[in-house]
Amino acid sequence: MTSFSRKGAKAQRFSALISFAPLRLCAVILICALSAFSQKPARTESHSTRTLPTMSAEAKALLEEAIGVVCTQAKLDPKSSIAIDEMQARPSLPVHTPEARAGAERAQRLLPLAKNLVIASLRQLATEYGLEKSAKFSVRIQHAIDRVNAVKSVKPDMDSRDNASVFLSKPRVITFGTIFLAGLRSDEGMISVLAHELMHIADGDNDSLRPLVAAVGRKASDLTGLDVHGQRGEEITCDLIGAMAVRAYIAGTPGYESIARRVARSIQHNCVEQDEGDEDHLSPRDTIRALLALHPVLVKELINDREERN
Questions:
Q1: Alpha helical stretches, state H, 77-230
Q2: What is the CATH number of domain 57-309?
């Protein structure tokens, strides 16, 4: 499974050294200390601080409305992805059943396209977060791209049930549970999950894209108030790459279906009734919330497209 490391909190302690000195020397030291203290406010004000991204009340309301569109489409769209909790409740599905075989064929067919979309999305995200200016990170991005390009196949697995995973000891294969293959009933839904797993492979076993993952996690935390650090940051970055890949796919393959419906397919497997997370993952509905906060264009498209059709 994907490996990850955690940053321990670093505590900084400042100590003062007190020495004895003649009274005159002490007076001089005291005067200097008081002078320095009086200058601290001015010095502090001269330093710039990181401006935290925020969401207005209106933006939050629109985000919640967009979540409603996603989950309404999950009930109306015949190609909608089945919710994760519903998948979990289903019996195991043998590899050779028609539904599993159709899902595996779709995943394998879309894999080359998903790889190209992930590479483009990864470069775009690095630019958005200002990391393309770092020569060191540019090298890491290239290595990540090489790892993505090395992926060759999708492996259906009955025991994996409703999960998809990558084993970084075998980074050329994405393992898909047969229930998951059957539950992702659209190209958009499949691309989003393929892209998620490809992002894990891009990050590699040394967390080489950690600066980007940390930046995305911080922004998601600031915008939503959720804890999106550590492994949660990696998972939401993978989801974001998946959504970006699907959005690029939609732009390149226009059709008669609404944009809102097609966008919804990329995240609607998170429209669960039992909304539970864990230490490494946000709950499914909070995943939608964080993802849309990070990608507000999707919010506009989900709402505006629906309004135009009403």
A1: 84-88, 98-128, 135-149, 178-183, 187-203, 210-224
A2: 3.40.390
